[in-house]
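Notebook B, p. 112. Complex prediction, attempt 2.
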Amino acid sequence: MSAEFLAELATLTDPAGILTGAATDGYLLDQRRRFAGRALAVARPRDTAEVAAMLALCHRHRVAVVPQGGNTSLCGGATPDSSGQALLLSLERFHGIDDIDADNNTITVAAGATLASVQAAARSAGRLFPADWAAAASCQIGGALATNAGGINVLRYGNMRNLVLGLEVVLADGTIWNGLRGLRKDNTGYDLKQLFVGSEGTLGIITRAVLRLYPAPTAHATALVPVAGPQAALELLHELQAAAGDRITSFELISAPCMALLAQHFPALPQPFAPIPDWLVLIELADAGEDSALQDKLAEVLFAQGLDEALLAQHASQSRAFWELRESIPEAQRLEGVSIKHDISVPLSAIPDFIEQCGRALLAAYPTAQIIAFGHLGDGNLHYNIFLPDHSAGVYAEEEHINAIIYREVAERRGSFSAEHGIGQLKRGLMQHYRSPVELALMRQIKQALDPHNLMNPGKFLPD
Amino acid sequence: MSAEFLAELATLTDPAGILTGAATDGYLLDQRRRFAGRALAVARPRDTAEVAAMLALCHRHRVAVVPQGGNTSLCGGATPDSSGQALLLSLERFHGIDDIDADNNTITVAAGATLASVQAAARSAGRLFPADWAAAASCQIGGALATNAGGINVLRYGNMRNLVLGLEVVLADGTIWNGLRGLRKDNTGYDLKQLFVGSEGTLGIITRAVLRLYPAPTAHATALVPVAGPQAALELLHELQAAAGDRITSFELISAPCMALLAQHFPALPQPFAPIPDWLVLIELADAGEDSALQDKLAEVLFAQGLDEALLAQHASQSRAFWELRESIPEAQRLEGVSIKHDISVPLSAIPDFIEQCGRALLAAYPTAQIIAFGHLGDGNLHYNIFLPDHSAGVYAEEEHINAIIYREVAERRGSFSAEHGIGQLKRGLMQHYRSPVELALMRQIKQALDPHNLMNPGKFLPD
């Protein structure tokens, strides 16, 4: 069967489009190196028609399909299982920018376009595509949509769900749904695109998208601000929201252990405060007009709050230096060793209490644990990572127990155990515990309706 | 069967909760008086448990359910058919504000709460709930969510879909789904709430919601601006977006025939321009800070564009007077007589061409037609209504032909035949023509999965 399938598959694209053997290695291991899989082959379609033909073939042969974008999933969402019976379908060769409609503030792109290429295309049209995160240069729009990715500008612009107006999707049987509309309002039936955004390839493969663009801001202001703690940070956020509203694009919380990790692993990065303050917030504002007006506004709020130690970036390179600190935290963690990572959200009002109570519970169970807490406070989203004295993969033995402590504190506040990274393989087991039976039943009904043979990215997302 | 059903229904709430006979009349006619229906009874549950018990009963007896909020649908979406075999379920007695979490910028409300009551509760907590439209005092949040309603602030804040973080829904079999989370980020499975927003009661009944709040703006600026035409209006919008970004809450286009209708039916309303300009835009900005700074910014952009005739509101009462003109257009139309109404959207870049070409096509077929065009230019959404010399219901004889002309022009620009008013009964027949077979099949799969006995608001929304 497999030989017949592969022979037919080879007729659906050019010779460079089908990889087997060692050429597939890079596609079969996730970027965190936690999940390794096998596949019948790697298919690299060049356009929607090829994706559709491949899915139709897979449907006839009942071959499972694992879609992959830039292979930057943090949850093993794009890695096949070890059976070797699935087709890995990479969108990397389908990466064009179809169209920019500056008057409509929209851009139409193929799924394999990298986030950075979309940002650049928008910039060249005098517009902003605001999604941004560390993997921008390698992640692809299809994957970003399929995981409803977030990043550093969610506070103002929302996550990928908020940035998409239309989709083209190839369904499990190879049917093409063309929903490439560029409309800001359209109440004509169920909003089908919402089904596919965040579904991690389990309902179909996103092939093209119409995305929202925004006017490119001309003024920026950045500050790095020592604060007494998470409650003080939250109060500052509200003062700033009252004064500056949607000009706030980022409001990031950084705890002292993050800065200590940076000092250790990136000694060349200037440490702006000595000694390191217990808590910092990194604030970014953007607006039309001149930098100076925006910087004055930010300074006004900070000084009205008595935050005299705040550092306001005086020029773009200082702003970049502040951001380099924030963006180097994940790499400093990696250099430090293996940690148990969490990407949680709670209502903003519950953040200070969560940080206090969860820290207490963890240290009671693991008195030597080190907690690396940082993230998008403005979205109620924390990256909350735990080091034990053993910095090797041996700590994964404690993962389940540590997770149970943290996710209990999250669940008590009606929070989420995966705010922006999704489910993939890594968090699939948590669905059963932290989503209700009614919710799981609804999700299974949808999955069954759209993919009755369970061919789309099986073994991910929904628990068995 | 019906007697047994009604007897059991009566045990599920208090005596005031079940209406029959003449007491049901007000629930069985839509507000535009185009659709009259009949029902077994009107049930008025007081809480989620009563809704659930009623839907479970209906499910056992295979009795159809028509949910109704404030009965303000413009498309007959909340009116039962003439069979008299459905239960009309009104949420009007389930209208509390459950909770305001100002630190999380969220409010939790029951489905029957009017939009105005939610706006007022937000205001009392120093926050803004930004959804707003003419029926605010009588429409209910459940209906607003079920129809994904829009209104005058969509440009900045989005429609109801963008304003909801969590839902509680009673499903077709009476199961309660509690998704009342107040999180800005949560990537743990399909985003189920998206299914119910805009589904017009065909998949379940929304009983409670967690809604987003915003800082209340302290500064406002309003201008009424004569422009050369739709293209000039669009250019002004882009200049203003570059200069003021998200401070623009409304950007409304008004054509001369609208102003003429106002002059005729509301002679007491001051007409700010004589003669009436061919086209006007009504602009509203909101921000933190002082009115004067925002008004200066607006004036700067207008005068840089050479729009010397622009009127800037000098105080709140003048702003209200400008808005009263805009908001009186629908009532002036009603006083003028019966028109064929449309609520369409196209990409913003296609608006000028649409207005020109569609007007030409209509006047070729109906040389005496009068076109009343106005609406939310910033969202690409026009209300586009046609008077024929006969101002009586007789014009409905031409409705199908007029619609065919207009919707052809809309479809050629990949627009929508219902931007914000939804489908209901009025536009159900259009679904078959203007949504693709793939889209309709996907919608039917979802409907079948969640409501296999077709009990939820049958005869609406999806074509047979």
